[in-house]
Amino acid sequence: KQWYQRRVRAAIVFSFLPIVIILITNIWILWIAGQYTRKHTGQSVPSRSAVTIVACICWSFLLSWTPWVIIWVNTLRGAKVAPVFVTIAEHFVTINAVINPFIYTATNTSFRRFLMRFLKRRALWSAVKKQNISRATRDSAL
After folding, report:
1. What does the alpha-carbon distance between residue 98 and residue 82 come to, in Å, rounded to a whole number?
2. Whole-model pTM above 0.85?
3. Cβ-count burial of 123 within 10 angstroms (0-12 exposed, 13-18 middle, 19+ buried)?
4. What does the DSSP 8-state code read for residue 47?
5. Distance, CA of 36 to chain centre
6. End-to-end CA distance of the chain
7. Exposed, middle or buried: residue 54 (CB in 10 Å: 0-12, 13-18, 19+)?
8. Which residues, 6+ apart, have CB-to-CB distance to 51 below 8 Å?
9. pLDDT tens, 14-45?
10. pLDDT in tens, 42-100
11. Minimal CA–CA distance to 61: which of 31, 28, 100?
């Protein structure tokens, strides 16, 4: 029974340790942003979008990893977990790795403008490259 209690405590500690680290680092980032804002603009708080981004990132991490942690702790307790729930939890964890750029795009206008310019240039470059390849193929056929 004692080994079981140690495993459950370790599971809880190692599950919530990343959450605590993310929260602390993001609060630190907001604090630094507030100092920079205060120094350069005279305002006492960081921008609303910065707070929104940090809140969205923290919540997405928490919501993405919670199902996996619940399954992990229940497995350590000896409970049988249906494979479909494990698969769903794995997909949530994978989604967390992909969601951050979407959060930045949705909440930050300068990042959104940069991304649009980048994608347009990429599409333009792709079109030019295809045109050059088709022209080279056509010229070599003649």
Report:
1. 25
2. no
3. exposed
4. -
5. 25
6. 81
7. buried
8. 30
9. 777 777 887 788 778 777 777 777 777 766 66
10. 666 656 677 777 788 888 888 888 888 888 878 877 788 888 988 998 888 888 888 87
11. 100
